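Exercise 7. Predict the structure of DUF3122 domain-containing protein from Floridaenema fluviatile BLCC-F154.
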Amino acid sequence: MSAFKTSDRLILLPESMTQLFPRLILLLGLILVFLGTPVTWVCPPANAVLRQYQAAPGVMQYQSRNSLRDPAGYAWQLVLFKEFPPTQSTQFILRLVGFPGIVDLAHPQSLQINTNTGKLLTATDLFARESPAPNVGQYNVTDVITQLSQNSFLKLTIPLENNNNITLKVPSSVVTEWQWFATEVK
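Solution. The predicted structure, encoded as tokens:
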């Protein structure tokens, strides 16, 4: 038995209780360290770049670029374009670039987009006739971008040659960036 004294009383504790206190203090310390750790140390940084340039005379193009990895660990580049053609309405285009020599995208097949609420959306393949490279796809997401809910994540099902698909998980931070990009970039 161990004893300690509070103001006027003497409290006796069994030996097992005195061994419990150092463990509780250690646990409390670990919890405080975990809660005090900045999120940037725990979460990987986002690889996002916003760009603006003149694509052609009179045509301004804005881009949001992100890099994601597929289930096999290969990098994909996701580029969301916002184009302002002089005689047409604004278009949102998503270009997907897979690892060269590893993936060949199937054309013309639509991109399937699953939201975290279970909604299935599709985007039309813009490289229906010819792609600049076998690992590149480009899709019209003008109608899709307005249907995305706040703080949601997406799963992109990309059609590949030989009737295969690959699924990319797009985190909510990228979707939030796309929504901001769609509404704020003028």
